[in-house]
Structure formats: structure tokens, C-alpha cells
Amino acid sequence: MKINKKIIKELSDYLEEFNLTELEYTEKDTKIKVSKNNISVNNQKIPNPKNEVNNSNINLSEKTKTGIEVKSPIIGTAYHAPEPGAKKFVEVGKKIKKGDTIMIVEAMKTMNHVPSTADGVVKEICVEDGQPVEFGQNLLILD
């Protein structure tokens, strides 16, 4: 696939001209999405040449992938507790066992308990409460 740089340049210029944060263009089987921080071509992210990569948007888990990664088994919305205001399933520093529920991922109005895939101590929680998650996205990192 050849990427038409002229279209990307025009879309980037429109972002600046109209003070937009995101713009999407679709033609036949090509889809180009331009935002202030990233350009997405067919859902593959490419750094935006107009802006420097903002390191604050990179999760710590992407910088240092040390430890056991517990990934989301499904697409949905991640919740840290069984209900609003309830005690969270896990906290950083908490020792957990394989099979313990670490989060709930809601998909199609169904609450799916996500079990830990290993024993360990929670080093990092990679998603915020109520944040959408993708299949295979890191939820936790264990030591």
C-alpha cells in the first residue's frame, strides 16, 4: 500500500487551520485518521511529524516491560472494583495468587471477572478505572 503524503499533509494543515484535535478521512478501502499527537493509517499509529512525541502519554509499562504482564482477555471497559465505591480488587504492592480476580471487564452489559494468570506482587496497574481496553492490552504488571 502506498501512502499518499499529500492527503496527510492537507489533513494536518486542516487540524491547525480549524484548531481541531482529530480528523478522519475515508476513501474506498483507505482510512486516514489524523490527531494532534498521532496519525493513524488503517489503525496503525505513526508519529505525527508536526508534533514531537509526548513521552507523558507513554505508559510506564511500555517503557519498562519487566515483570509478568496480565493482559485483557476481551475488549470492553475495565473496572477496578465490583461496584462504584467498593474496595478495589488489587492495589500496587498487594500480593496476589494465580486465579484471583484482578479486575472486571464489561463487554455487552456482561461483567467478566479477569483472573490473574500468575502469582506475584502488583507492580503496576496499567489501566484507569472505567477505561476502555483492547484484547491483549496490559492490565497489570506483577513482580
CATH architecture grouping of the largest domain: Beta Barrel
Q: What gyration radius follows from the Cα positions, in whole Å?
A: 19 Å
**% residues in beta strands:** 35-45%
CATH superfamily of the largest domain: RNA polymerase II/Efflux pump adaptor protein, barrel-sandwich hybrid domain
Beta-strand segment tally: 12
CATH class of the largest domain: Mainly Beta
Summarize the structure.
This protein is mainly β. The chain has helices spanning 5-17, 60-63, and strands at 22-27, 30-35, 38-41, 44-47, 68-71, 76-79, 95-96, 101-107, 110-115, 120-125, 132-133, 138-142.
Could you please describe the fold and organization of this structure?
The chain is mainly beta and 143 residues long. It folds into two domains: 5-57, no CATH class; 60-142, RNA polymerase II/Efflux pump adaptor protein, barrel-sandwich hybrid domain (OB fold (Dihydrolipoamide Acetyltransferase, E2P), Beta Barrel), CATH 2.40.50. The chain is built from two helices and twelve strands. The protein has helices spanning 5-17, 60-63; strands at 22-27, 30-35, 38-41, 44-47, 68-71, 76-79, 95-96, 101-107, 110-115, 120-125, 132-133, 138-142. The strands form three sheets. A four-stranded antiparallel sheet has the order 1-2-3-4, covered by helices on one side. It has a four-stranded antiparallel sheet with strand order 5-12-10-7, with no helix packed on it. Strands 9-8-6-11 form a four-stranded antiparallel sheet, with no helix packed on it. 18% of the residues are buried. The model is unreliable at 48-64 (pLDDT under 50).
